[in-house]
Amino acid sequence: TLVSVLLNLEASGPNSKTISLFTNGQRASPPQPLPESLQGKALFPAMSFKNVTVHYNFGPHLLAPLAFKCHTMQEALQKDAVVVPAPSKDANHEVVWPVCLPDE
Fold first, then answer.
1. In Å, what is the CA distance from 10 to each residue of 4, 45, 57, 77?
2. pTM of the model
């Protein structure tokens, strides 16, 4: 099963500022409004499952066609993305793995 998450950042339109879920290229639920507290902020994709293997695809091609044209994360416009420079090779690095398992 292929699950896709679509974040619509358009300023206007019927589905502007929403997040949608698709299964195998078909809409799985109505678009949900993006909370105002998250609008205009950098958003980072995260997924959490137990005992499953997950494959992320950030582009450049969709794994399942959608009924409309949209960009992948790899094709994100400069105004819609936050690009940070890579840390220097001499810097100390920290890796943070968010763990989101309810009831655990």
1. 18, 18, 22, 12
2. 0.65
